Amino acid sequence: MVDRTGRLGRGRWHRRSAADEAGTARVAAPDRTDVLVVGAGLAGLVAAAEAADAGRRVVVVDQEPPASLGGQAWWSLGGLFLVDSPEQRRLGIRDSAQLALDDWLGTAGFDRPEDFWPEQWARAYVEWAAGEQRSWLRAQGIGLFPVVQWAERGGHQAGGPGNSVPRFHLVWGTGPGVLTPFVRRVTEHVRAGRVRMLFRYRVTSLAVHDGRVTGASGEVLVPDGAARGAPSSREVAGEWSIAAGAVVVASGGIGANHELVRRNWPAGHGAAPATLLSGVPDSTDGLMLGVAATAGGRLINEDRMWHYPEGITNHSPVWTAHGIRILSGPSPLWLDAHGHRLPSPLFPGFDALGALRHVTASGHDHSWFLLDHRTIGPEFGLSGSEQNLDMTGRSVRKLLTERAGGKVTPAVRAFLDRGPDFLTAGTVPELAERMNRLVGQPLVDGRELERTVRLRDEQVRTGLGKDPQVVATALARRYVGDRRMRTVEPHVLLDPAGGPLVAVRLHVLTRKTLGGLETDLSGRVMRADGAVLDGLYAAGEAAGFGGGGLHGYRALEGTFLGGCLFSGRTAGRAAAADTA
């Protein structure tokens, strides 16, 4: 189970994890190791486990305290991208590796010379997702929720962005459920003396001799009792240096470093929003990417990012500017800052990047969801392990009593009651007045907004209608997973029986870094001249989840954790072979 501070209580999290083995006392660093892994997040733990399984001595260094073992993956909802899985087939979903690859390539939009390795990684990843991934997950003890979710529907023509079918498989246990097997594997190696975990060790430089990376050095930070995900001190207590046969960079992306986000903000998206929320802890600072680049590694696609336009301010923040993403069904009206509907197909859950571009190009840094209380229960989900305690705690009882039947979950109820971005009212004009008061500007015309809602309602009353969102919502309900769990029966929003109207102010939420260190299919980091930088590997977000950007411009979802697993496994095995 997970408590509100982000700690795991009684449950299946290993009682004596690698963090427990290291403890909070200072652990002396060895002078040399076979494989040095930078970062104790999911990709780093997978790489360490694989290298240690191959008999290599491994040291894992991380700048955070032991409490943050697992990094940002711990906070994840736990979605994985699988293709033609038994879960899909049981629900009547017809998927194939070719369809998934077509969707991936249409979504990624690879169009640069430096996309060579990213596309190779994309093809390899889809093949893995359609093949070995599921059996490998089962071998790790990772189970999947039986109802497959449909994220990033796209709404574009065939060959364009989006998933043609549902592929978002939730892990039973969410992010902690994904991490647990690898924490267990690393812990076993810690006890056997094959792995050393060094927390509060920050890398500031990589050693390079005769064109090969031969280790790393950096600063020892003072001990810090910060809770999981909370900001920790950067006060320096000393220095360290470790020689290594190979170094794996698994340090994450740049999502919490808003200076880097703004510096790399992509062209064509308008100006970076004045207000950004962070979907990742402060430690996701991207500084290790600069260290690797200084050593000769090539950074590519730095302007490709996967930020969400549906962020809300956390009423109980853990890290700086802590935001949560709303995972909405297709029914709420998505409005810009002036109360105008976003154009088709920019409906909730369809095209996150398209919606982001539209919002940021508008000159305002917020938009709105408008719905009623009847819709919010079945259609509003929240991303994150701590926002889904029934799934995280593997509690069927909670699932049935707190979620089934379209109930408003306790997490969503907390935002309705205490979330600063949530507003309710009995009428549209009253709601518009509250929207304007919240942002401090009279941007929304109440009468015009009421007409917008009425026109939408008239389309619903027909039972058919020409409104693209009404049509798309009706189509979504043809899929049993949406009909039973994610999409409310179409109804008019102005019917008082639906309960009070709800408006939710949405912010841009930083999350995933899609570019990174360019790597070949073994996870070896490349130089600017196209040659391999011997001795250096990269995995997870630091590698753009593989190759320096296997997602291209946008992601199909379920590929954050999966990308960490796939690239971490690849880099760990390759680094072990390199040091044999």
TrEMBL record:
<dbReference type="Pfam" id="PF00890">
    <property type="entry name" value="FAD_binding_2"/>
</dbReference>
<dbReference type="GO" id="GO:0033765">
    <property type="term" value="F:steroid dehydrogenase activity, acting on the CH-CH group of donors"/>
</dbReference>
<dbReference type="InterPro" id="IPR014614">
    <property type="entry name" value="KsdD_DH"/>
</dbReference>
<dbReference type="InterPro" id="IPR003953">
    <property type="entry name" value="FAD-dep_OxRdtase_2_FAD-bd"/>
</dbReference>
<keyword id="KW-0560">Oxidoreductase</keyword>
<dbReference type="InterPro" id="IPR027477">
    <property type="entry name" value="Succ_DH/fumarate_Rdtase_cat_sf"/>
</dbReference>
<keyword id="KW-0285">Flavoprotein</keyword>
<dbReference type="InterPro" id="IPR036188">
    <property type="entry name" value="FAD/NAD-bd_sf"/>
</dbReference>
<feature type="domain" description="FAD-dependent oxidoreductase 2 FAD-binding">
    <location>
        <begin position="34"/>
        <end position="561"/>
    </location>
</feature>
<protein>
    <submittedName>
        <fullName>Fumarate reductase/succinate dehydrogenase</fullName>
    </submittedName>
</protein>
